[in-house]
Amino acid sequence: MAHIVIKKGHTIRISGQPRKEIEILSPPGSVALTPSQFRYVKPKLLVREGDSVRRGDPLFFDKLETRVRWASPGGGTVSRIVYGPRRRLDAVIIELEKDESVVTGPAFDADKLTSLGRDRVISTLLEAGCWPLLRQRPFTKIASPDDTPKSIFVSVAPTAPLSPDSDIVIQGREADFQAGLDVLTNLTAGKVHLVRSQLSTAAIFSQAKNVELHTVEGPHPAGNVGVQIHHIDPIKPGDVVWTVTLQHVILLGHLFLSGQVDPEIVITLGGPGASDPVHVKTRMGLPISTLTDGRLKTGEQRLISGDPLTGTAKDSDQFLNYYDFALTVLPVSHERPFFGWLRWGSPATKYTLTGAYRSNRQGTYEFSTLQNGDPRALVPIGAWEKVLPMNIWPNPLFRAILANDVEEMENLGLLELDEEDVALCSFACPSKIDLGATVRKGLDVLFKEG
Predict the structure, then answer these.
(1) How many CB atoms neighbour CB 144 within 10 A?
(2) In angstroms, rounded to a whole number, what is the distance separating the alpha carbons of residues 450 and 446?
(3) How many whole angstroms separate alpha carbon 32 and alpha carbon 14?
(4) 279, 247 in Cβ contact below 8 A?
(5) How far is the C-alpha of 224 from the C-alpha of 121, rounded, in Å?
(6) Least C-beta-crowded within 10 Å: which of 22, 123, 152, 414?
(7) What are phi and psi of 242, to 5 degrees?
């Protein structure tokens, strides 16, 4: 067991923190899967508009790995298939039935889950269309069924802004969670690492069986699984580590105990633009409009699937992403203060990591979409290094990626990173550089070189 103390980083004091209680949302009229969000995947449809599907029926598969399929998050009728540029498959939308049909596969006794064997677990997950719940580092892509990871990480210590509280999410799902952990032990010859917050009070996290328990404390990004891997079981060239989110472990456990795909999740609606920030119990792939109707403040708002540092901007008629458990609402601002960079700043409005503004306000801040300046030449004042708690030099790595120096990228630790690990660097950057986009560009290069 390790106790990780993170000192570098920063917890953003953003307003609109979700209330620590769960509101059960009325069932949505439709749900969707959006294939375009999955990296290094070429989707091939298995359904057509007008087809009837059960919850758990496969909707599409990956042409590059035909065994990997995606289960429908609901039972009903395929009402619409949305295509993007160059016939890119963007969404498969299911209009739900009141009494939806469900695919039922094999179920297992809880006390036998640790002895199922790797092949049995893999075949069950592939058949159920739940394999995409498992992702791998490096590259943060869907895991390959042919790989054997050296370890598997489950982080239940979220520190990203406006993320769901793990102690709230786990309520009533303890048996499914333990079952999911037991299933994961079959997939690696190494350890399943469970990392919880030192402040967590949920008994299941501190008493979980068949895992290596760890605790973590410190500011964001202490809860990022990439940071935890770096401090517990670092990735070296040739290594593969799998990661699974808390809620996806729960879904895995439910699948093996009941034989059915369970799309129920808990997400947060939060941010300065939300009139009633709250935890919501709903299902995967829900329409964003079902969350936002009557819950937004007046004025123009930006809707983000995910947290404000790494999420994806969405329209209200689109759907929540597969791996996201938050919907962030930020007021859209077009304000351009005259000589804003020369002003001391009001404690009520200015937020600073570097002390550039004379602001000492305590509490939360009403962030907006305002960037406070345009991208400019790189200013190497150590802003990135102060918020990246990994033994990686982000500035030389950034330059190596821009120079397309493959060997230098690897030597500087790019394979250990994902966009979320450097998102705080982008937030803190005085040059307004999106380091996360640059990291993904480098990872794409390494993947193609692969």
Answers:
(1) 16
(2) 6
(3) 30
(4) no
(5) 27
(6) 123
(7) -100, 150
25-64 burial string, b = 16+ CB within 10 Å, else e? beebebbbbbbeebeebebeebbeeebebbbbbbbbbbee
| Residue tagged 């994902």 (tokens) | 418
Residue pair 275/295 in contact by the 8 Å Cβ criterion: yes
User: How is domain 30-96 classified at the CATH fold level?
Assistant: OB fold (Dihydrolipoamide Acetyltransferase, E2P) (2.40.50)
What angle, 0 to 180 degrees and rounded to 10, lies between the N-to-C axes of helices 394-402 and 435-449? 60
User: pLDDT by residue (tens digit) across 300-359?
Assistant: 999 999 999 999 999 999 999 999 999 999 999 887 766 665 655 554 567 878 766 665
CA distance 103 to 124: 13
Please state the separation of Cα 118 from the chain's center in Å.
26
Which residues are paired to 55 by β-bridges? 102
Q: Give pLDDT, residue 317.
A: 94
Neighbours of 386 (CB within 10 A): 17
Distance CA 270, CA 273 (A): 8
Q: Assign residue 89 a region (left: φ > 0; alpha: ψ between -120 and 50; beta: otherwise).
A: beta
Tokens standing for residue 386: 């102060």
Q: How far apart are CA 160 and CA 248, in angstroms?
A: 18
Residue 138 phi, psi dihedral angles, 5° rounding: -75, 170
Interatomic CA distance for residues 278 and 280, integer angstroms: 6
Segments making up each domain of the chain, as ranges: 30-96, 108-258, 383-449
- Cα–Cα nearest to 285, from 132, 170, 141: 132
Which residue type, as a one-letter code, is found at position 148? T
Going by the DSSP 8-state scheme, the letter that residue 377 receives in this structure is S
Q: Is the pTM of this model over 0.90?
A: yes
Residues 48/81, Cβ–Cβ less than 8 Å: yes
Note whether 390 and 416 are within 8 A (CB).
yes
Rounded Cα distance, 288 and 305, in Å = 8
Given pLDDT bands bounded at 50, 70 and 90, which one contains residue 155? Answer: very high
The amino acid present at 104, given as its one-letter code, is T
Look over the chain and give the mean of its residue pLDDT values, rounded to a whole number: 94
Q: Most distant CA pair in the chain: distance in Å? A: 67
Which class in CATH covers the domain with range 108-258?
Answer: alpha beta
For residue 290, what are its two tokens? 């079902």
